[in-house]
Amino acid sequence: MAVVYRRVRGKKTTKVIASNEGVQDELERRTFQMAATAEVLLLEHRQEGDAEIDIERGDVDWYVILSDERCQQAAMSIEYGRAARIDPETGAEKAAMDGLYILHKASHLPVKRQGGVRF
Predict the structure, then answer these.
(1) Largest Cα–Cα distance of the chain, in whole Å?
(2) What is the pLDDT of residue 119?
(3) Model confidence, pTM
């Protein structure tokens, strides 16, 4: 019977495995591949705006980020879409928009359409 230790030399076993050079190399490769796919998907739909795909590296993890500095909810609207509404400050009508699901598609996650996010 195998024995699985929770810690190796004072570190959690999962962190030791995740920090392994080969694992980090593969995570980096997959992250760049996902980011490249997301960039292509974003470029196919870009009409205007400042949206971009960024990569961040954490202590152990890697992240692909859809960033749009126009406003707080812009990246979320691009990913998930938005429901139609009237802006209470300006009175302007904001049209509904279907989500593009850029990160979902790039990472091969299932897309669950919900008719737009309400803000």
Answers:
(1) 69
(2) 46
(3) 0.76
